[in-house]
Amino acid sequence: MKKSFLLPTLAILGLLFIQGTSKTDAVSEYELHALAPDMPANVKAVVEQKCYGCHNAESKNEKGKAKLDWDAFEATKKSKQLATMAKINETLSKGEMPPAKFLENKPEGKLSESDLATLMEWSAGKKKSKE
Ligand code: HEC
């Protein structure tokens, strides 16, 4: 009798475990929505992965934070956002971000071609919303 309980219980525990581990994705997506509700999801995903770490209100990267703070970006007026987007566009078109020095130690931080295209298109003001 007891043995017949064991297998289903283990199966359920296994499923719960799998669910638990996949939840991390959902959490970061939620944080992103809080970060910038107006930004298309595909743009947010790239920013979160490749830019946010240095450019946020709590960043230890003082220079990066001073130049661009995504937390503040969200709260600023549209006109200021547009100016920041233009700056981002210019910076990216020169291939300056993420910084080359940082990429030496963390090559996986590099923007893929599609990441770059996503950010370039968005920062140029052509919002291709993919919510
Ligand atoms: C490893 C940390 C780091 C990452 C990752 C990073 N940045 Fe930066 N960013 C910096 C620093 C540091 C500066 C200041 C550079 C300076 O003043 O010389 C900066 C400056 C900038 C500036 C201002 C440039 C200017 O001339 O005013 C923009 C725009 C920018 N970053 C955009 C981005 C974008 C977009 C991403 C993601 C693709 C990104 N950054 C990823 C550290 C980072």
Automatic annotation (TrEMBL):
Pfam families: Haem_bd. SUPFAM superfamilies: Cytochrome c. SMART domains: Haem_bd (SM01235). Residues 96-117 are annotated as: Disordered. Residues 12-127 form the Haem-binding domain. Coiled coil: none annotated. GO terms for molecular function: electron transfer activity; heme binding. Transmembrane segments: none annotated. Residues 103-113 have a biased composition (Basic and acidic residues). InterPro entries: Cyt_c-like_dom_sf (IPR036909), Haem-bd (IPR025992). Gene3D superfamilies: Cytochrome c-like domain. This is Heme-binding domain-containing protein.
